[in-house]
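Entry 14. Ran structure prediction on the chain below.
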Amino acid sequence: MIQEPNELTQTLERRLDSFDPDERREALDALINEAEAGRVHLPEPGQDVNMHCHTFFSFNTYGYSPTKFAWLARKNGLAAAGTVDFDVLDALEEFHEARRKLGLKGCSGLETRVYVPEFADKVMTSPGEPGITYHMGVGFPTARLEGPLAEFQRALKDTAQRRNQDLMARVNAYLSPVELDYEKDVLTLTPKGNATERHMCTAYARKARAVFGDGSSLAAFWGEKLGADPGKLELPEGRTLLDTIRKKTMKQGGVGYVRPDTGSFPGMAETNRFIAACGAIPTLTWLDGTSDGERQIEALLKVAMKTGVAVVNIVPDRNYTPGARDEKLKNLYEIVDICRRLDLSIIVGTEMNSPGQRFVDDFSTDELGPLLPIFLEGAYIFYAHTVLQQQCGLGYVSRWAAKHFPKRGPRNAFYHRVGRALRVEDEDKLATLNSTMSPQEVLKAAGV
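Output, structure tokens:
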């Protein structure tokens, strides 16, 4: 249950979203003081999880910083929480600092888009883009990368920004006189210059309002350019308008869309090598099972697993309607069953990078309730992996893990036990462990 904050808490919580990291840190410390004084209630962790939340370092529709998300996750009794941002690890260090202060279990990851040559003619999770799928790495232990790893990660961001600017030039020509300046109108919406298509949609909505005002001229402009009923667009900056701008100008069929070639995105295999070399777990994303590629999900998983994938990401909230036993719900249960059969862990979350998305899934529903134990198990696995990799290099993809648990089933069971039992305040105790330790010794150190 989301708590309603008092006036002081509201002020401090707003400061958690400042672009100034010192202000965010000071606001969190003040909120923790309020909690210790009994003026803010922090409940005992329950069973709900959100392990996939974008922060304002890529795009969060509510403007949440990593610290804000950690605070709200702890305040609302989540068992564990995780951040994921497009093409950057900028949230990682801040999120872990905040979650440890709060006693919150969690992990951080990275999301990007990759090319899958074996599925070059199939649409997967990126609508209208055959061969391209969203892809993730879960449980990065640090954002301080060096050498080729730093270069690869930097290239992800740089390539995405170049794509954005090329896209913007084409959309500017169509929406003139509503034209964006990338640095002034788009990058100012981000704390560290990692803009996304969603930032550009927001910038176009705001620029149009600046050009045409709030009246009939604005409605006429968007109605003509988007071929839509302006009365249904939620002007001047509602969800429907932003989604329609993106769909009609940036996605397949839109004036700014250019079909990517094989060099537009890194390959899945090389991306998985980068993720594993960073000490994180390569992760395939799943949308809803309705695309051509996802209708062949076991073949796609086979390709992905050959290059290191051990986790599947699911966004449950988009895959069911309460009370409706429809195709998407059927597909959701099918992908969960496949993952269980293949011993692939599952990471879930609501993303929060589009207006209207929940803070956390409603696991009390008949549709999601039966799946919660599976999702909670995954959350504990990713938390245990993260801490063991950070503290002593014994994470899920380490040589130590491969030696002691060559099969994923026993490996999952081990990291689940660690993640469930380990207390946040005891994380530093794992720093004394090393690769000569047995699994039993690690379990004992984790309090199992």
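The CA atoms of residues 178 and 210 lie 9 Å apart. Will compare against last week's run tomorrow.
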